[in-house]
Structures are given as structure tokens and as C-alpha cells.
Amino acid sequence: GHLGQKSQKNFQRLDLGELTRDCASLAQTRHHLSQESIRFVNYTLSSPFVQGDPEELRSAVGNLLENAVKYSPGNIAITVAILDEAGDLLVRVTDQGQGIPQSDLKRIFRRFYRVNERLRQRVNGTGLGLFIVRSIAQRHGGSAYASSEGEGRGATVTLRLPRDSS
Q1: What is the pLDDT of residues 138-156, one digit of tens each?
Q2: CA-CA distance, 79 to 71, in Å (whole number)?
Q3: Which of 147, 44, 146, 140 is CA-nearest to residue 87?
């Protein structure tokens, strides 16, 4: 996609590891979770820098964490990993929650999409979280995608951003 100048004016060089760790602590505090409930792991070998708008990227990572917490019934065990893949940086949020049916993996990124009624009785929200994550990813030249072994088996949502190698 083409980036308008407007959206890039707040871009700066950011340490994605630091930003992601901050978001994880914030989610922990906001939901009164124990230290163990959100585990942060940095697998990158060198400084994980990206060019981006700090507010937008915080919002994207924050949304991934909010979703993981929201869809984790009972015991919350979330892993947030940051890793290198082919010149890009990935923020990968894995939960042990209710999972995503195979047929819904693509749809969950649509503007108002929400997982079927039966699964979402306990869940509030507009269903905008992942749509926002994907929009922000695309504005940064990246992407967002999800995977799940199926219902009841947790989910992994990945935010992929180009590394800033300057």
C-alpha cells in the first residue's frame, strides 16, 4: 500500500522490544494479572528497531494483548515473543484461550467481525481490535495474521513489521 505523507509524519526509530515489553506490563497492571500470566521473550539477535508511529504501534500491540486476555477463560497464560524473520520483526502473542475456528482465521481481521455467539457470551467489545491492528500494520508496511489449532486450543496472532536497518 502507499503511505500518505501525513501518516508518516510521526514515524521515528523505535525499539520494538522495549515498546512490546512496556505494553505487556501495562496489560498486566490494567487486568491485575500476576507476573507469570504474561511472559515476554525477546528472540531477536540484534536491536529490534522499526520505523513507526509510537502511539499507533503501542495501540496495535496493546490490542493484541487485550484480545489475548479477553479470550482466555480462567487461567491466563500469554506469551509475547519478538523475533526476526527474513528481514522483518514479528511480535507474536500466544494465548491458551478458547482458540479460533479455522473458518474464522481470516475473518477476525474484518471491521466488525466477532467470533460466533456461543464463543463470545463472556466477551464484550466491538470486534474492532484486530481490524485496527491490521490497519496499523499495513500503514507501517507490515501485516497481521492469526493461527490457531482450533477451538479450545489457544491462538497466536502475529504483527509483522519491516526492520529498520539504518
Answers
A1: 999 999 999 998 888 899 9
A2: 14
A3: 44
Question: Which residues of 12-98 form beta strands (DSSP E)?
Answer: 12-15, 38-42, 49-52, 78-85, 88-95
Q: Are 152 and 118 a contacting pair, CB within 8 Å?
A: no
Q: Which three cell numbers, joined as nine digits, stand for 63?
A: 490490542
The dihedral region occupied by 100, where left means phi > 0, alpha psi between -120 and 50, and beta the remainder, is: beta
Is 91 in contact with 16 (CB distance < 8 Å)?
yes
Alpha carbon 153 to its chain's center: 18
Q: Which three cell numbers stand for residue 29?
A: 497492571
On the 0-12 / 13-18 / 19+ scale of CB atoms within 10 A, 145 is: middle
Q: Which residues of 119-128 are buried (b: 16+ CB within 10 A; e: fewer)?
A: beeeeeeeee
- Measured distance CA(67)–CA(154) in Å, rounded: 12
More confident residue, 10 or 9: 10
pTM of the model: 0.86
Per residue in 52-90, pLDDT (tens digit) is 999 999 999 999 999 899 888 778 999 999 999 988 999
